[in-house]
Amino acid sequence: KTPTVSATLPAVSNPGVGFRSHTVANLGATLTDDGGQLPDVAFHYWESGTTATNTVPAGMREEETFIWPVGGLASGLTYEYRVSAANGAGTAWSGVSSFSMLPVNATIYVSSSGDNTDASTWATAYSDPAVAFASAESGDTIRLAGETFAAAPGFALSYVYLVDAKSNLRVEGGYQAGGATPGSRDPAKWPTILMRSSGSASVLRIQNSPDIVVEGVTITGGSYIQGGGVYLSGATQSAWLENCIITNNLLPAAGNTTDGGAGVFLASGTAVVTNCLVLGNKIVSSGLDNYYGRGGGVRVSGGTMTIRSSTIANNVAQGKNKNTAAPYNRGADGGGIYSRETAAKTHLENCTVVSNDFNEATAIGVRYAAGTLSITNSIVWGHAAGDLSNLPVDGSGHLLNVGRSLFNDAAMDGVAGCISADPLFRNAAAMDFTLQDGRHGAAGVSPAIDSGLRLPWMKGAVDLAGGKRLQSGAVDMGAYEAAGPRATLLLIR
Q1: pLDDT per residue over 219-235, tens digit each?
Q2: pLDDT tens by residue, 451-464
Q3: What gap in Å lies between CA 418 and CA 380, rounded to an integer?
Q4: Is 88 exposed, middle or buried (0-12, 13-18, 19+ CB in 10 A)?
Q5: Is the N or C terminus of the chain more exposed, i.e. has fewer CB atoms within 10 Å?
C-alpha cells in the first residue's frame, strides 16, 4: 500500500511588496508551516476597487520567505494582493496588502543606501542606476545621489548603463541624497560618478531615444573601441549632455579604422553638449597593424553634434600604422575632436580646445575628414601639428565656416573676425583656461575678450564657470567670459 501522508493546514502570510516600477512588482510571501505536505502556492492580485482577480501560480514551496515578480501592471494604479497555500488538508490564505505602481512622469531616486522598493524617496530609492534606466518610461526624471556607481557590463554587452527607446527622459546627478526629496543639489560638492569597474564597455550608451537630458554627471573609466565614455546612436536619437564631466575614458587598440571618440562618440542622430568638460580621455594603439586613433575627446561619425561653452583638453589620440621597418608611423587624427563621415555635422560654439594629443610633434586640436564642420567664438590652441587640420578652404585659401575664433594660423588672422595670437589663459598648466583680463593679478588682457559674436542661444545662458554669458555688448571667445563676478571654477587635475 502507498503510505498515507497526514497533512495539516499550511500557514502563509503576506510580507508586502518589494521592488516595483511602472509595470513590474515583486510580490512577497512567507510560508511559515507547510502542514507536513508541500503546498501549492499562488498569488492573487486585483486593481483596488474592482473584483476581477488575476492568479499567478508559484508552484510547490518549502517553508521560506520569497518574492514573485509580476508584470503587465499599469502605471499609477493601486493594486491589492494576497497569497494562497493549498495541500491535502485544504487552502490557507494570507491577509491582503496594497501597493501602488510608479506614476506616469515619475521621479525616480537612485542611492546605494535606498531599500530598492518604489524609488519615490531617497529612503526607498533604487540602489543601481541600471535598474532606474531600465525601469524608467518616457517622461520620467531620474535623480542620482552624489556618489560613485561602479559596475561591469552584463554578459556580452558593450555598455554598463543603457538608455534605449525612451523619450523625454531627464537624468540629474549631484544630489546630497539625505532626508527630504529632492533635497540639496550641487554636482561639484556631491559629484555623481558613473564608471566601469571591469570588462570592455562604454560607460553610458544612449540609443533610439529622443529628447534625453543627462545633467550634472561625471562619466569615467570606460574602455571600448567606440565611445569609451558615451556612445550615442539612432536615427531618432537626440541627447543633451549638460554640465557633465567626461574624463579618463580609454579606447584600446582594435586593429581597424573605426576606432574613435574615447570621450564621446556620435554614430547618428543629434547631440548637444553644453557646459561640459571633456578631459584626459585617451586612445591607445600599440600594435604593428593598422591602428588609428581618431578623436581622443570627441568623434562625430554621423548625425549632428553641437558643442557649446565646453572645454576639450588634454585628450589623446594615439595611433600606429604598419611599416616594413621601424620606426613606425603614427596614425593619430584629432586628439580633441575628429569629424569623419560625409553625413557628420559638427558645430563648435564658444568652446575651448586646448593641448590635446599624445606628443608635441603630432598634436592636433580639431581634425576634419568629411561632412560639415563649423567653428564660431572658439579658442583652439596648443597643438604643434595644427590647431585646425585639413579643413576645407575657399578660393582665397581661407578656412570655410570658421569665424570669430582664435587659433594659430597667420593666414586667417583678421579674416572673418579670427585671431592668431596667444589667448593668454590665466594658468593653462593648472588647467585654468579662463582669460586674463588685466585684473586680479593678471599680467595682460586676452585678445579673445569681447571678440566673439552674440548668438541667439546666449540669452539667459551661463558660461562654463557659471557666470552670465551676456555681460556687455560683446561676448568673449571660448568657454569662459572674463568680465563680471565669477562663480567657483571647477578644475580637474
Answers
A1: 999 999 899 999 999 99
A2: 999 999 999 999 99
A3: 11
A4: middle
A5: N
Question: Fold for domain 107-417?
Answer: Pectate Lyase C-like (2.160.20)
Q: For residue 362, which amino acid is it? A: T
pLDDT at 472: 78
Lookup: cell for 127: 540602489
Q: Which residues contact 112 (CB under 8 A, 6 or more apart)?
A: 127, 145, 147, 149
Contact in structure between 196 and 203 (CB atoms under 8 Å): yes
Alpha-carbon distance of 145 to 224, in angstroms, equals 26
Q: What stretch(es) of the chain map to CATH 2.60.40.10?
A: 11-100
3-state secondary structure of 360: helix
How far CA 164 is from CA of 129, 159, 168, 172, 237, in Å, comes to: 14, 12, 12, 17, 10
Cβ neighbours, 10 Å, residue 98: 12
- 11-100 is classed CATH 2.60.40.10: yes
Domain with CATH 2.160.20 in the chain: 107-417
Report CA-CA distances (Å) from 206 to 15, 297, 304, 366, 452: 37, 18, 15, 24, 33
Rounded distance between C-alpha atoms, residue 68 and residue 100, angstroms: 16
